[in-house]
Each structure stands twice: as structure tokens, then as C-alpha cells.
Write a structure and sequence with these properties.
16% of the residues lie in helices and 29% in strands. By secondary structure, the chain is α+β, with helices and mostly antiparallel strands. The protein folds into three domains: 2-20 and 32-259, Jelly Rolls; 385-479, no CATH class; 492-609, OB fold (Dihydrolipoamide Acetyltransferase, E2P). Strands 1, 2, 5, 6, 7, 8, 9, 10, 11 and 12 form a ten-stranded mixed beta sheet that branches. The protein has a five-stranded mixed beta barrel with strand order 29-30-31-33-32. It has a two-stranded antiparallel ribbon with strand order 3-4. β13 and β14 form a beta hairpin. α6 runs antiparallel to α7. 35% of the residues are buried. Residues 378-427 form the Laminin EGF-like domain. Disulfide bonds join 378-390, 380-397, 399-408, 411-425.
């Protein structure tokens, strides 16, 4: 009885508010319910309304065609003629303003025993329902009735509640059903002669979606009940099970609820396509604010709660990208703070946050990281440097022996310029080399102990094959003998490309990562990795989502391992004991990532946990 009275109050409130919108006067036009007085995001929800008010209803049966005279059990008769205003009972009367003193009623045609009449209400959008209420006009009520909902605009139907004088026979359900936390989405059958019998003076039947559901007081944290109260359409089925023909007459069909916006909108509006959608806030998007809007994927979408608006957060890309994606593994590694990965970084930047310069570029120390010209080209000298890559911070190119300068374009003090692309600068105190040099190349030059420019135009890559140059090259070979890497690199293919459980067990770490940057530092080359997933970390050294890994230059020159920027790899290796960091060498496993590897790595992890290593 208390529930019925409560629904009566909600019916009055929702109908009155829906019809008049009187409460709008109490709110300032500049007030945003989704932001608190401290300008912080807070949960906001649309108004509670009668969602059926002035909505069209589809009825499978309506009296008036043909014209009939109907008589109730009290011998009160009336004419039903759809062509006459005073004697027609259309479905519009179901959702108009309900005046108890002057009822306007919809009436079905005669329903044969075993048949039914149905009413279908389309809400045109997902709503979260609080109650469904029917007020009958006459003393003739259906023997049995069922309430269904649809969440896909009428494509499929889910039962919400059954009513019958004989639940087991009509609906094959017990009238003593019990709702627990394990079956909170189950429809009950109510054996209610008091509600459906003709002797009942109360002509209203009311169904509460949350009554008797154990998690009702935890609704904000119960996805099961949130799904249970969600509907786009409501269907009422009126069944006749006795031996006589009957008709049914209903004055009011009410549905109390709110437009479903998941706590991220305070109202629903009609979009340009004529559809009802949420006016989303908190950087959310979608008809129900059910996802984050573009570029706001730094943390996962979550429904708002009274304690936390759970707004979507923009990715940090330092103004070098407007596209990003969410990575759950990185989000968990960060302590649930950040999971966004920037994609398609511009202005020659790379990295998870577009916060590094890509290979052959370095950061201008005089500009902020957000500046579009933050990355400058290394511009390393093609003869004096060992490659095109320079230090990310200083822009210093990696120079050959005896060469100096930011671009490696000068000889250091004590060295003299040659015309050799292999050794452009040699020590001037080496008399043997100096003599050969002066005889065959620069007979008129004198020793110069000051830095000299390396002339690119006069130092072509292909040296002239004269007897003099050959002699110089042979002499240089005596002092700088080439390293025979054949034997050292021979085992590379076996170690790098073969994968089995023994390697997984012996290595210190196994990770799935993307290479985002490279830095040359003398005898070492370091690569910046964006960690996608950690399968093994023996000493828990991988604490951040981005990690540097070190490779000796000897292994890099051997192309073992071979790492390329912006590619994903499965990496198995050992810790570098001197630098307390990750390292790779020719004994490491470096395989370009394939999706099928994930299943294999998970199997290796289980074997290790079961002490199979």
C-alpha cells in the first residue's frame, strides 16, 4: 500500500512537471547542473518525468470499427463508434493529462477467450525507469497481464512483471518467486486477485522496477540493476482466459523515469536528425553519453556517481597530435592515472606523449615542448659523423675519431684534415702518416695544430682510386684494423629468432613493447620503449610505462638485435648490472610482434607459476 501511495505522488509530480515545466523558473539560465559552485565537474541527471506523456501508443485492438455497444457486468452499456468524437476511445487518451474527475479512456474491441490485446509505447531513446502504471476505467480487468521492455527499439522483448490469478497455468511461473542478488533481473509473477479482480475498488496497477531488488540501495554501483531499469520501449499484454468475450478500458498509461545519460547530462534534446539524445557534458559523447569524445581517452569511460563525475580526460600530446587511443595495460601500470597513447605525432615528434624528437632530430632547448618547431634536424656532417643521429638533448652528432663540432664538421686540435671519407682527421704527430699524406696529397701544406673545417665539396664519398690513396688507406689500416664481426654475429639468428620456454625461464624480463625513440651515446645505443605488456620482470625493475633499453654499438653494427622505430616487438633479455636497467645483446630474443604471440606468452607465464622453469 505504501508503494502504491508513493507512485501516486510520483505520478502527480511527473505529470505536473512534464505538462508545465514550472520548476525551470527556479534555475538561473547560466547555471550548469554538471558543474558545482567551485567550477568542478559533478554528476548530473535529467529531470524525472512521465516519459509516456503525449507519446503515441500502438494498440493491437481498439473499439469503434465496426460500431459496437458494450455492456459491463453492472449492465451499464455504451456505444463505441470511431467516427464520432463522443463515442470513440482512441489511444491518445492513454497519455493525455489524467483527470480523475473526468476520465478519458482507451477501449479495446472484444477479446475472445485465449486471445490478448497489446499496447506498445516507444520512448524514442533509452530511459531509466522507476515505475509503470495503468489506471483502468471500468470494473472489467484482464484475467492476466504481462509487462515487457525492449532495449533495442522493439527488436527483442524482456519480461519485467507478470500478473495472474493462476501464475503457474498461464505463465508457467510460481507466484512465490524470490529475488536475490543472483537473479535481480528476473520477472516475478504476482498472484493478485486484489489487484486484477473486479471486486477491487482500486483501479490502478503499479509496478516498481526496483522494489524488492536487494541492490536497489547500491544502484549507482550495480551495473545489473542499471541494465534492468533501462528500456527504449514498453509493451503491455492484456490476456483473456475466461470463457466469455471481454473488452478492456484504460484511462492512463504512465511511465516514470529519466532520460538515460549515465550521470553526464542534465537534459535530453532533439538533434538535427529528429532523435532524442543526451546533451552530454564531462567530455563525453553518444546518445546516452556512453563513451568519451574524441581525444579524451587518457582514462576509461565510467558512469558518474554522486562522489565522482568520472569525466573523460584529454590525452597529453603537447599540441603535436589530436588523436590518441586508450591502453589498459599502461593505465594500470600508472596507478590508474593515465592510459592515453598519442598517435600520428606531428612536427617530427614521437613517443607516447609526442614528447621526444624522432630519429635524426633533437629538441631545441630554447623552446617549450609544445612549440611546433621544438624538433630541429641534426644535420650531421656526412663525412665527419658516424651517422645521421644526434643527441636528443644537445644535438651533438656522433663524430668519427679526431673530428669535433656539433655537426662533426671540424678536426680537433692535434689532428689534421685528410681527403679520406673513412678517416677525415688524423693525428699530426704520426710522422709516417704525415709523410705519406704530405707526399701524395698536400705537398705545399704545413702542419696545422688548430681546428680545421671539413670541406664537404672536396671530400666526396667515393675516394679517387690512385696509388697514393691506396697507400694511405693501407697505412691507416695498420693503425685502425677493421673488426671482423663474422664470428661474433654468427649466433645472432639462433638467439634472436627462436622462441621456447627455456629462454623465457632464463631471461630476466619478457615484454611486449613499441620502439619510439633512439639515442646514440658513444659505445652504447639506447632505445626508448613504450611498454604495452609485461610478461616477466624478475626483479620488478619495470615500473614505468616508458623504459630505456641499452644495446652495445658492437651489437648494433652487427644488426643483432635489429630494432626499428615505431614497430612492436617481443623482447626477452637480461638486466644490465652496471646501469640497473634493461639491456639487449646478440643473445637476446627480439621478434617483431604478432598477435598470436600473446597466447604463447600467457602459456609460458602459467608454466613459470607452476614452477616448470
Amino acid at each position: 500500500m505504501f508503494l502504491t501511495k508513493l507512485i501516486y505522488v510520483l505520478l502527480f509530480f511527473s505529470s505536473f512537471c512534464t505538462a508545465n515545466r514550472w520548476y525551470r523558473m527556479f534555475y538561473s539560465n547560466h547555471h550548469d547542473p554538471c558543474v558545482d559552485r567551485h567550477n568542478r565537474y559533478q554528476r548530473c541527471i535529467p529531470d524525472f518525468i512521465n516519459a509516456a506523456f503525449h507519446k503515441s501508443i500502438y494498440a493491437s485492438s481498439t473499439c469503434g470499427n465496426p460500431v459496437r455497444e458494450f455492456c459491463s457486468n453492472k449492465s451499464a452499456c455504451h456505444l463505441c463508434d470511431s467516427s464520432q468524437i463522443n463515442t470513440s476511445y482512441p489511444t491518445d487518451y492513454l497519455t493525455d493529462i489524467n483527470n480523475p474527475n473526468n476520465l478519458t479512456c482507451w477501449q479495446s474491441d472484444l477479446i475472445k477467450p485465449g486471445e490478448n490485446a497489446s499496447l506498445v509505447l516507444s520512448l524514442n531513446k533509452k530511459f531509466e525507469l522507476t515505475y509503470i502504471s495503468l489506471q483502468f476505467c471500468s470494473d472489467i480487468k484482464p484475467d492476466s497481464m504481462a509487462i515487457f521492455k525492449s532495449m533495442d527499439r522493439g527488436l527483442s522483448w524482456i519480461p519485467l512483471q507478470y500478473y495472474s490469478n493462476n501464475c503457474e497455468e498461464v505463465f508457467n511461473k510460481s507466484s512465490f518467486g524470490l529475488i536475490t542478488r543472483s537473479n535481480e533481473q528476473e520477472a516475478l509473477c504476482i498472484d493478485t486477485k486484489s489487484q486484477l479482480s473486479s471486486s477491487n475498488s482500486d483501479s490502478r496497477i503499479a509496478f516498481s522496477t526496483l522494489e524488492g531488488r536487494p541492490s536497489a540501495y547500491e544502484f549507482d554501483t550495480s551495473p545489473v540493476l542499471q541494465d534492468w531499469v533501462t528500456a527504449t520501449d514498453i509493451k503491455i499484454v492484456l490476456l483473456s482466459t475466461n470463457s466469455d468475450k471481454n473488452f478492456y478500458s484504460i484511462a492512463d498509461f504512465s511511465v516514470g523515469g529519466r532520460c538515460k545519460c549515465n550521470g553526464h547530462a542534465s537534459k535530453c534534446i532533439t538533434n538535427s536528425d529528429g532523435h532524442l539524445v543526451c546533451d552530454c557534458k564531462h567530455n563525453t559523447a553518444g546518445d546516452e553519453c556512453e563513451r568519451c569524445k574524441d581525444f579524451h581517452f587518457d582514462r576509461p569511460w565510467t558512469r558518474a556517481t554522486p562522489r565522482d563525475a568520472n569525466e573523460c580526460v584529454a590525452c597529453t600530446c603537447n599540441n603535436h597530435s589530436r588523436q590518441c587511443r586508450f591502453n589498459k595495460e599502461l593505465y594500470l601500470l600508472s596507478g590508474r592515472k593515465s592510459g592515453g597513447i598519442c598517435i600520428q605525432c606531428k612536427h617530427n615528434t614521437v613517443g607516447r606523449y609526442c614528447n621526444y624528437c624522432k630519429e635524426t632530430f633533437y629538441q631545441d632547448p630554447n623552446l617549450p615542448i609544445t612549440h611546433p618547431e621544438i624538433c630541429k634536424a641534426c644535420n650531421c656532417h656526412p663525412v665527419g659523423s658516424r651517422g645521421k643521429v644526434c643527441n636528443q638533448t644537445t644535438g651533438q652528432c656522433l663524430c668519427k675519431d679526431g673530428v669535433t663540432g656539433l655537426r662533426c664538421d671540424r678536426c680537433v686540435k692535434g689532428y689534421q684534415q685528410t681527403k679520406s671519407p673513412v678517416a677525415p682527421c688524423i693525428k699530426t704527430y704520426d710522422t709516417k702518416l704525415s709523410t705519406l699524406y704530405n707526399i701524395y696529397h698536400r705537398p705545399d701544406d704545413t702542419d696545422d695544430y688548430h681546428e680545421q673545417d671539413v670541406n664537404v665539396e672536396n671530400n666526396p664519398t667515393a675516394a679517387t682510386t690512385t696509388t697514393a690513396t691506396t697507400t694511405v688507406h693501407q697505412t691507416l689500416s695498420e693503425y685502425h684494423p677493421p673488426i671482423d664481426m663474422g664470428q661474433y654475429c654468427g649466433a645472432c639468428r639462433y638467439y634472436s629468432h627462436r622462441l621456447h620456454i627455456k629462454k623465457f625461464c632464463k631471461r630476466d624480463y619478457t615484454i611486449h613493447a613499441r620502439v619510439t625513440n633512439r639515442h646514440d651515446a658513444g659505445q652504447w645505443v639506447s632505445y626508448l620503449l613504450t611498454i604495452i605488456r609485461v610478461y616477466k620482470d624478475r626483479l620488478n625493475r619495470i615500473q614505468d610505462s616508458e623504459q630505456w633499453v641499452w644495446v652495445s654499438r658492437k651489437d648494433v653494427e652487427c644488426s643483432c638485435p635489429r630494432l626499428q622505430l615505431d614497430r612492436q616487438y617481443l623482447l626477452m633479455g637480461f638486466y644490465d648490472q652496471t646501469q640497473s636497467s634493461l639491456s639487449l645483446d646478440h643473445t637476446s630474443v627480439v621478434i617483431q610482434w604478432r598477435p598470436r604471440m600473446e597466447q604463447r606468452m600467457n602459456r609460458f607465464r602459467k608454466l613459470e607459476l607452476n614452477k616448470k622453469c
